[in-house]
Every structure is written in structure tokens, then in C-alpha cells.
Amino acid sequence: MALMDENLWAFNMARVVVVDVSDDYRFMQPPLPNDWYPVLRELWVPTMDLDRRLSSLDLVEGYLYDWHQSPEDVGRPWYVGVVDTALLGH
Fold first, then answer.
1. How far apart are alpha carbons 63 and 66 in whole angstroms?
2. What's the burial of 72, exposed, middle or buried (CB within 10 Å: 0-12/13-18/19+)?
3. Where are the alpha helices (H) located in the chain, listed in sequence order?
4. pLDDT score at 83
5. Residues with Cβ < 8 Å from 37, sequence gap 6 or more?
6. Which one, out of 47, 71, 72, 82, has a CA that is 20 to 30 A from the CA of 12?
7. Sequence-separated contacts (24+) of 26-31 with Cβ below 8 Å
8. CA 31: distance to chain centroid?
9. What does the alpha-carbon distance between residue 90 and residue 78 come to, in Å, rounded to a whole number?
10. What are 1-50's pLDDT values in tens digits?
């Protein structure tokens, strides 16, 4: 019988950190490191098809999806950049 020393939920669930990248557009500046942006929300979502689903998730009200970065290692968070809709005049 095979034994697993890992937590299976770590492969089925992903931590998503939603960051506000509005200032990149407001001040027309190059992207900053992910850790430098204000965190708007953290959530756990199923990993299945996450790369494709991120742009369609309603992550934070009043913000629109801009980009995402997948982690290099299992268990590390995904980062999703969102932009304030006020910049678009909505």
C-alpha cells in the first residue's frame, strides 16, 4: 500500500491574492513586484482550470481583472492584479 506524506488539499485548492494595480495606470509606471501592491482580498479557490477561470471570476466589486501570475511551486499563492473601474469612468 502506498503512503502519501503530503496534504492533498494543497493540490486541489489555491490561495489567490488579489492586488490593486490601479496606480500603474494612474501614474503610467512600470509594474512593481507583487509584494509591493496593496492587497484587496485573499481567497481559496479550486485549482482545476484556474489559469483559464481567473479572468472571469468576480474577485472584488468595483475592480476589473488585469493580469495574473501563477506560482512556481505548489502551495505558493497566485497573484491577480485588478484595476479600479473609476479609472475607466464607470
1. 9
2. exposed
3. 9-12, 22-26, 50-53
4. 96
5. 19, 20, 21, 81
6. 82
7. 26/87
8. 15
9. 27
10. 666 566 766 678 999 999 999 999 999 999 999 999 999 999 999 999 99
Confidence (pTM): 0.85
pLDDT greater than 60 at residue 90: no
What's the rounded Cα separation, in Å, for the pair 33 and 48? 26
Degrees (nearest 5) of the Cα angle 72, 15, 74? 30
Long-range own/partner contacts, residues 66-69 (CB < 8 A, 24 or more apart): 66/21, 67/21, 69/34
Grid coordinates given for 75: 502551495
